[in-house]
Amino acid sequence: MSRLDELINELCPDGVEYKTLGEICKIETGKRDANEAVSDGIYAFFTTAREPSTINNYRWDEEALLVSGNANVGDVKYYNGKFDAYQRTYVLTKFNNKISVKFLYYLLSNNLQKYCIKRSNKSAMTYILLSTLTNFPIPLPPLPVQREIVRILDTFTELTAELTAELTARKKQYEYYRDYLLDFENRELYPDGVEYYRLEDLFDIRNGYTPSKSNKEYWEHGTVPWFRMEDIRENGRILSDSIQHVSVKSIKGDLFPANSIIIATSATIGEHALIKTEFLANQRFTCLSIKNEYKNLLDPMFIFYYCFKLDKWCINNTNVSSFSSVDMVKFKNFHFPLPPFPVQQRIVSILDRFDALCNDLTSGLPAEIEAQKKQYEYYRDKLLTFKEKKA
Fold first, then answer.
1. What is the rounded CA–CA span in Å between residue 53 and residue 38?
2. 124 Cβ neighbours under 8 A, 6+ residues apart
3. What is the pLDDT of residues 66-125, one digit of tens each?
4. Cross-strand pairs, 324
5. Domains in the chain, ordered, with CATH?
């Protein structure tokens, strides 16, 4: 940071000039429909999705910034080369010689989304007006200052990308060993094989329940955890509490016991979680609770890991009507392995170590990536805040 401090003290000690975005670059939109994307196209095609698609024709061949005009409002991408764009994507080109494009990319990535959301129009879909984008204020420190900021932020970005790539490789390795260890047909690992039971023989199987929103007694002042898909998406697959709670006064039937599995069997199929407390769940989930006679024969964490195989089975065994749902007759007859308890514990011990390395936000690579992101955000906010020079 000392080099940057020196540059600021030398080149702009009294603050920096500000311009509007419309004054420092050309702003236009693409003309394509989003459905013009092709799966194996030659050139990049930018829509409002997080990741670019491809297309076989291009309109631009230059350094550009792409801003989502709706959907992911204010999302910014940097690109240099041949590309085309969707009609709701703003394309920024022909930059003023006082601005580094990468510096502008970091500046917009940090501030534009919040700025646009405050000034967006909301109807069927949130979108950005051209005038909102054009008037976005841009600080213009001297180019040596911009380049030093870009160098610092690029270093953070590259390190995060390296850690993320390593995490992706570790996850693939983890999935390989998980599938390998859970293949009970592998006679090298399990020369004596294992016994299989129907799912309904080992588990009590019940669906979740979602009452009417008008039932205020159920929804207000609740203390019972009530799980939805959002819980898995936001907080992971091993859960001790839910985002939303319901009242015990209006519950139909008993609570699901702790150490049960919830598995999505309609709508978003192929997700599951282990719930460590007594709970309820919405109707999209089917709950698997170990029957009393098997509680000493099944490790809940072994069930959790084997349910990754059950997820895949569910995806391939659905009935389609107004929405997809798992064939529950087949589901109840799914053959679930019951290896000896010490074998289950050994598998769990190995997979727990892999899982912590790949998914635990308090240790391993995810923790390192999270710490790196927080450090990056801290310095990005600090580096991209400038005092305006008085006229």
1. 7
2. none
3. 998 887 777 899 999 999 999 999 999 999 999 999 999 999 988 887 776 666 555 444
4. 320
5. 18-140 (3.90.220.20), 195-338 (3.90.220.20)
